[in-house]
Amino acid sequence: MCLMCHENEAFFAGKEDPSRYVVTREVHEGSLHGARGLLCTDCHRGMAFPHPETPQPADCSVCHNDQTTQHAASLHGQAAARGDPLAPSCSDCHGTHDIRASSDPRAMTYVFGIPQLCGRCHQEGTEVSRTRDIPQDQILQNYSMSIHGEGMYRQGLTVSAVCTSCHTSHFILPHTDRRSSIHESNVAATCTQCHTLIEQVHQQVIEGRLWEEEPHVIPVCVDCHAPHKVRRVFYDAGAANADCMRCHSDPQLTMERDGETISLFVDELAYNASKHGGTGCAQCHADVTPSRTERACVTSVAANVDCAICHAGPVDDYTSGMHGRLAAQGVPEAPTCLDCHDHHATQDNIWPTSPTFARNVPDLCAGCHREGEPAARLVRKEGYEGPDIVNSYVMSIHGKGLIESGLVVTATCPSCHTPHKELPPTDPESSVHRDNIASTCGICHHGIEEEYASSIHWIGREDAPADRELPNCEDCHTSHTIARTGLGDFRLTMMNQCGRCHEEESETFFDTFHGKVSRLGDAAAAKCYDCHGTHNIRPVTDVESTLSRRNIVETCAQCHPGANRRFTGYLTHATHHDPHRYPYLFWTFWGMTALLVGTLTFATFHTLAWLWRLWRSPEEWVFARKRREPAPGERLYRRFTTFERSLHLVMLLSFFVLAITGMTLKFSYMGWAQVLAGAVGGFATTGVLHRLAAITLITVFLIHLGDVYRRKQASGMTWKEFIFSDSSLIFNRTDLREFVASVRWFFGLGPRPYYGRYTYWEKFDYFAVFWGMFIIGSTGLLLWFPEFFTLLLPGWTVNVATILHSDEALLAVAFIFTVHFFNTHFRPDKFPIDPVIFTGRITVDELKHDKPREYEQLVRARRLEEHMTHQYPLKLQRVFKIFGFAALAVGLGLIFLILYSMLTTYL
Q1: Most CB contacts within 10 A, which of 135, 178, 643, 650?
Q2: Does residue 628 carry a pLDDT above 50?
Q3: Distance of CA 12 to the CA centre of its chain
Q4: Is the domain of 411 the same as that of 440?
Q5: For the chain, what percent of residues have pLDDT higher than 90?
């Protein structure tokens, strides 16, 4: 019935605090009183309707007589009796209508809420703290930082002491009242509610007999453990330390042990400034008993300090770690706590002067782990063959970040190996074990660890292969020699790292342009992770993969801004050895191989047959060879014009550049190619040189075509007549007849042919230029501008173009530097050099022998004289020859390297 009105706030709108009168059914039924079936009138008596103007407050003593009696006698109750408006009543602590049991986490008196509940009045700044005489200050703040507060709030210990544990819940009295739970005569009993075995715990600082014979001389708990600031131990004015320092403050204090003089001096200033400055000597030196009347300590039998008294966790880690195991085995070099932390001047690791400060840790660990030191010798003995650990770290990205840049947040030795539980990487519990190393690195590289966890390499995958290990951080980045990922050395190293597992893919990668230029030291070229990702590598069937259909264009566009869908059809790991998967590549390769082998085989037999003929009939060419050198002042026949010779010179130079830069790329796996490319600045330079030479050669070709057109126009002939004329460089029926006649002559079956201006082998050289310009030039342009050409062509045409370009170039180089060099250098009648293409001049006798039909045509037409000219100065002729021999040496050297590379590769 009461709730008919008290659930409606509108009934109490005129009241000073309407909310005081509003009670909902849910609040009442959810309270402790409602749960026990109490009615409103059980607490609010004399409230017949209509209610009196001044109703009496609820009387809690009806049910809670003991508590109200204690409250009335307490400081709070006495203040209330005096009419103090700040005195708390029952409802101030328990609530009004939503009273709950103290075991209910929602209750105001639940153990977690008590410090805040009492703090409403007793924390600094409240009216009570400012206007009432309270002996302690900063009560709530001190409690929250005490051992009790930390136990409550940091560790969630609901058994930790709160305000009511010491002051009681209702009978709160000043510490001067003998009835008070915090009176000096009652403090021990109050504390022993939680802390038992007080005599045993304090036997090293309080003589046992005093507890019974003279208990009045024993300090009460709060004499050492300050109220509200309770920590593990508190010694007022350092009383225990003063006893120790009476002796140990003497710098001359020493002792003898095993023939060694040991200093027992303790620098009190350094000790007080250390991390242990507030810690008593006896807390660490547990065998020291100040309660002894004769002497507190016996240094001759003093036990080692047990750091586990305070540092149980780190000591447990140390004991189970490699350092602790070695120490337990009696290894003298095994480090203990004091090898890393000073005896008495122990400093926090955040202090720059501490040995364990991040900047100092490498030097600290180097004391044992530097090459030649005990730990380094031990790991070498156990089979470690890697580089010096300390120097490797110093040169790594972590070491440089710490030492050179002063980044104290960078990883140091304990960041990876933990500070105390260092274990070998083969131990499953080790922080650097294969299964744990990702989470270890993830402490700093959390985002990368998350990416790695989603990749195909994640060792925690449910479908991880059982027959091989998946790569972790160390496999790619190494352990101590970790390099900046943006550096060229790292990018180049990663190709080999991936190849250790992906051998087949690695081999095919190195057949591509990306792989070849990478072998030549080009760090900018795409590497494995540029396409597949770094830590987020996924199967290509995964839509999130960088190589999925949705993302592959964007991936390629990182290096190729004009990439398109067709462009991504480029076969990055294709091989020309598989006719089923890659038939276009297979047949292109073998077609070019047949062309290469066929052409060179035919040329080889032709050359050998020629040599056979010349060797069998020297009388046919010895005289002509003697007449090759003109007499002083003799006029010579001009075979080539200055314009033609200039074009040839530029073509020669550009061809040599193309040959050298191209062959270094084709044979990039060979050391000579890498050295040669490196000598001129790497692929960044050779690539530019190759393209410049290609542009130059194309330009020469176009100029030549322009000159052909000019001469055709001047001749008055039709194109057919001009092309197939006797002075043309294009094949005609005469060349076929001369070829047959030459073969007959080689074998003594007929006379030497009557050669004209251009022989069939010279025309073949000329034809090779046209053929090469078409094949090599067109494929070269496609490879230079693949984004443009794949707007029309499928991506695999880039693979086909690579084979065509490479093998045709090899054919051109092989032919020019063997067959062509034979015709210009090694023919007995031309040896050691035929300089006509540089000088443009030959003797008339040589013309008669070499080109008899041309000579007769000139004589018959009375045009020989107009082609006669003077000799070049001897010095200039010598320059021509030196240049020719230099070109010969370079060409033959390149042929030797090519043969060597092919023999070592295929044999």
Answers
A1: 650
A2: yes
A3: 70
A4: yes
A5: 42
What is the rounded CA–CA span in Å between residue 163 and residue 147?
Answer: 13
Catalogue the long-range contacts made by 443-448 (C-beta closer than 8 Å, 24 or more residues apart). Answer: 443/415, 444/411, 444/415, 448/535
- Per the structure, the count of domains in the chain is 4
Co-location of 213 and 281 in the same domain: no
Q: How far apart are the first and last CA of the chain?
A: 107
Task: Work out the burial of residue 826: count CB atoms within 10 Å of its CB; fewer than 13 is exposed, 13-18 middle, 19 or more buried.
Answer: middle
- String of DSSP letters for 110-169: SGGGHHHHHHHHHSTTSHHHHHS--S-SSHHHHHHHSHHHHHHHTT--TTS--HHHHH-S
Residue 416, token pair as written in the block? 């990876």
DSSP code of residue 37: T
DSSP 8-state secondary structure symbol assigned to residue 587: H
541-544 long-range Cβ contacts below 8 angstroms, 24+ apart: 544/454
Residues 340, 198 share a domain: no
Last residue of a domain, one of 482, 513, 538: 482
Q: What is the pLDDT of residues 836-865, one digit of tens each?
A: 999 999 999 889 888 999 999 999 989 998
One domain, residues 146 and 282: no
Could you tell me the maximum CA-CA distance found in the chain, to the nearest angstrom? 155
Q: What is the pLDDT of residues 735-773, one digit of tens each?
A: 999 999 999 999 989 999 999 999 999 999 999 988 989
> Contact 881/889 with Cβ under 8 angstroms?
no
In a domain, 557, yes or no: no
Residues spanned by the domain of 421: 334-482
The answer on 251 and 212 residing in a single domain is no
- Each residue of 405-420: b (16+ CB within 10 Å) or e? eeeeebbbbbbbbbbb
814 and 838 share one domain: yes
Per-residue CA distances from 565 to 211, 527, 533, 584 (Å) = 91, 21, 20, 20
Q: Which residues of 793-809 are buried (b: 16+ CB within 10 A; e: fewer)?
A: bebbbbbbbbbbbbbbb
Q: Is the pTM of this model over 0.90?
A: no
Same domain for 357 and 279: no
Residue recorded with tokens 């639940």: 110
Radius of gyration of the chain (CA): 50
Q: Is residue 401 part of a domain?
A: yes
Distance CA 355, CA 346 (A): 9
Query: Is 80 contained in some domain?
Result: yes
Residue 286 has what pLDDT?
Answer: 66
**128 shares a domain with 173:** yes
